[in-house]
Amino acid sequence: MIDSKSKNIIGIIRLDRLGDTILTLPAIKIIKDNYKDSLLVAILSSYNYNLFSYNNKIIHPYFDVIEVVDIKLSYYFDNFYSV
C-alpha cells in the first residue's frame, strides 16, 4: 500500500518491451537522484517485471514500489497496423 500523504509519488510507466525499458534507465536514475524524498513507483508489463525483481522482491535501487500490469501487447500492435 502506498501512503500518498507522506511522500510525493512519481510513476514510471513502461508497458513496452525489455530493450525500451533498459534504454530509459539513465533517465530514471536522474529522476531518482533529483527527487530523493519521493516515492518512485514502476508500473511495468510482466516482460519488464523480471528485469527489476527476483523471487518477487525488488532488486533494483531506483524503484521503491513495482506494480505489474498484464496486458497483451499484440492487441496494441494489431490496432496500430490496421490504421
Strand-helix topology:
Elements: E1 9-14, H1 18-23, H2 25-34, E2 39-44, H3 46-52, E3 53-54, E4 57-58, E5 65-68, H4 73-81
Parallel strand pairs: 1-2, 2-5
Antiparallel strand pairs: 3-4
Pick out its properties.
single chain; 83 residues; alpha/beta; 3-stranded parallel sheet; two-stranded antiparallel ribbon; 4 helices; 5 strands
Nutshell version of this structure?
This protein has 83 residues and is α/β, with parallel strands linked by helices.
Please describe what this structure looks like:
The structure is a single chain. The model has no long low-confidence stretch (mean pLDDT 80). This protein has a 3-stranded parallel beta sheet with strand order 1-2-5. The chain has a two-stranded antiparallel ribbon with strand order 3-4. The chain contains 4 helices and 5 strands. Strand 3 and strand 4 form a beta hairpin. The protein has helices at residues 18-23, 25-34, 46-52, 73-81, and strands at residues 9-14, 39-44, 53-54, 57-58, 65-68. The chain has one domain (9-81).
